[in-house]
Amino acid sequence: MAEKKKIVSFILILVCHVSIIAILAVIINKSNQTENGKFEIIYYFSKIITIKNIVSNNHNSEVINDFTSTGEASGLTTSYKGYLKLIDKDGCIQGYKPCGILDTLGHKLCIDEIFECPINSMKVDAIQRTDNYVAKNYLYAPLSNTTNNYRFFFSKSYEEGNVGVIIVKSKDDPTYLTN
User: Which of 3, 57, 76, 77 has the largest count of CB atoms under 10 Å?
Assistant: First the structure.
């Protein structure tokens, strides 16, 4: 059975690579070698590289488990595929508990019942609200480059919360830009 899975995986990877090469060949062939055609090729290649990096980063990210007193994040080392193997049609497989939402598809993050859940809720808010967050099972840690009078709060108590894998400081929501 494992042999069949390896063969199927190899065939799928081969089909993906052949498809990408075919698409790139069509793009190169379609665009004539004028100045605009050269920029069009660069545009398409940059989009392909961007998507490849997004997928790679998502699959190589670690679920944030805790923060040190200096604000450094520590993560769980299991891979995304490993987490998906712990899910069945009813939720988590036997011996595991749900600890948050793993991805944008709504898959549950399942963690061994003997372990504490990783961080599944994060917020940055005014320091004056610290008591409110502590009363709701939040902890706090220093986070570099936060605005004065603001604090980073996190909790491991929200089963329906999104599991944290990366922190991006921005005034705007991150976006994927195209024409």
Answer: 76
